[in-house]
Amino acid sequence: MNKSLGIILIxxxxxxxxxGINKLEGSxxxxxxxxxxVSAQDEGAKQTGYIFLGLAALCLVGGMMVxxxx
Length: 70
Fold this sequence. Notes:
By secondary structure, the protein is an alpha+beta fold. It is 71% helix and 17% strand. Strands 1-2 form a two-stranded antiparallel ribbon.
């Protein structure tokens, strides 16, 4: 039971990490207009990306602790 819970937490960490990285990559963009580079960022998407990465870290640590405990 403990081993399966640890595996589920580690898989969830991978999922949350993937989602967080995708959110961070998609949160900004830039264009060149009249010789000047103009950039914009979506702060909400950036914050959501960091939340997903935090959840990934928590799930990974929790999964590793559950797998270590016998």
